[in-house]
Write a structure and sequence with these properties.
single chain; three-stranded mixed β-sheet; 28% helix
Length: 137
């Protein structure tokens, strides 16, 4: 099992205290988070540093962006072995209309979608909306 430091280094990301803290924060979450969630967790940190860290993590396939239809972008850690390729790594997301949480359903893969010739896929996002298991009880 790789340490966080080894993971970051393997992705050619310089290891800093803030990057380690943000990674650990994301790893503890069972739901996708917004930049505001990260800002609230690290109130004393520079907002630009937080934003750049999340963007670096996204560019290096450590986190992926989720558009759950709420108008607020959310982020979640990529699963082990993920490289965020449209052809191989797409999975379902679930957005709860009650608690407003969005979770990755990584065991539920989205089949590859062939687009017509001349079209180029850049992003695919499938979100199921409903009531999560915590709210449906």
């Amino acid at each position: 099992m790789k340490t966080i430091e080894q993971l970051l280094e393997s992705k050619k990301i310089r290891v800093t205290a803030m990057r380690l803290l943000i990674y650990k924060f994301l790893a503890k979450k069972e739901v996708a988070v917004t930049l505001s969630d990260i800002e609230n967790a690290f109130e004393k940190a520079d907002r630009t540093t937080l934003y750049r860290t999340v963007k670096t993590f996204e560019e290096k396939a450590i986190v992926h962006q989720i558009d759950d239809g709420t108008g607020i972008t959310k982020y979640a850690l990529c699963e082990k072995g993920c490289n965020c390729e449209i052809e191989t790594d797409l999975h379902l997301h679930f957005h709860c209309n009650n608690c407003n949480e969005t979770i990755c359903l990584t065991d539920h893969k989205i089949p590859q979608i062939k687009v017509p010739d001349g079209f180029v896929s850049e992003n695919v996002n499938l979100v199921v909306k409903g009531i999560c298991d915590k709210c449906s009880v």
